[in-house]
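Async update (no meeting this week)

Hi team, since we skipped the sync, here's where things stand on the single-chain job. The sequence we agreed to prioritize is pasted below, unchanged from the tracker. I ran it this morning and attached the output directly underneath so nobody has to dig for it. Comments welcome in thread, and please keep replies under the output.
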Amino acid sequence: MSPPKTKGNESLLGNDASKYGYVRLVQLDGVERKVTRPNASWFDTGGLFNLNVLVNDLDATATALRGMGFHAFAEPESYVYPGNVKGKSAMMAGHDDVVISFQERQSPPLSGWPEHEGATHVEVGYQIVKDIAAWNSFWTKTVGLTARDLRTRKATKPIGPNDFRLPYNTKGLDDAIQAGVYPRKGGEQQIGARQFLNSTGADYSDRARPPNLGIVGMRLVMKDVDALAARVAKAQVEIAAPMRVYTLAPYGLVKGFAVKAPGGSGLWTEFFEQGPKPLAKEEMQTLLGNGAKNRWTGFGGADCPKCSSEFNKDGSAKVTWSRGEAVGNWVLKGNAICTTWTSLRDGRESCAVYYDVGNKTYESYNVSGAPEGRNLFE
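Output:
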């Protein structure tokens, strides 16, 4: 993760007709970054190999992208899917070694997908893993997504032309097992994984995270992140970022956490739910009514290891930080805790609501909606 108060810019790209499949471009300043998957080889494990997107005119898209610095990753190919679905696709590699598979549907016409002039929406491609069974178990049993059956793809003849950048005359290097899960009904999007059985490359699983360059993670909307977090803990999946409340365009205030996808992918995968509710008045009374103490584990975007607060039953309060302390008073107004300090804020009152993020830890936001800090109650 990036140091506190790291500055940067972000841009959110998407199809106005779609409610999902966004691409978030982020540029961070003053931090060390490595390319997540240098050279963009299919058989290098770790992270996400590619993105997929449907376009109206593949040839025109490829021509335009070459003018922007993209280049072909493999020869374009035609495909026929079950149900006589026909199309053609071309993989292109762009900035920071990001690979995108551009696909044009030729027949039958698309139905049930967002209307688009240039592209539909982005679909994540394949995570390249070492243990596809562990990956599949996480997504189906822990996360609870619907899956397609694991498929073993083994060569029966020399490879010939292929999109793996493998020699044409070597049999078996493209042998692999594939898996896929669906984040939503209808099958418009799929999260895929592939484990190569014979081809071995570098392992970049430790780089598949911010602030590195390339495809460093993905986010998924969930209905109950608290229940999911409990299942993740039970499954002993590695946490990449703890539960927190934050503002995320275009969703507004959300609550979520991130894991390192298991099975050797290591991809930073963030799960969040929209519209988290702050503690109600009765819950705040239970938390603070008989007096309470807390440690600030973060304040104003920075770590605050020596910061603490005391809320006494008689309404008096004390706050301590590395260079001093202040005394004052606190009171509950509805579900907001309001404090005044004799030597801070010129004695002005400030009110905040709390969000439970688990393990006796709470995120606080002032009543104007600005984040204040993260605190752990004793």
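Quick observations from my side:
The mean pLDDT is 91.
The chain has two domains: 8-274, 281-377.
Reply here if anything looks off.
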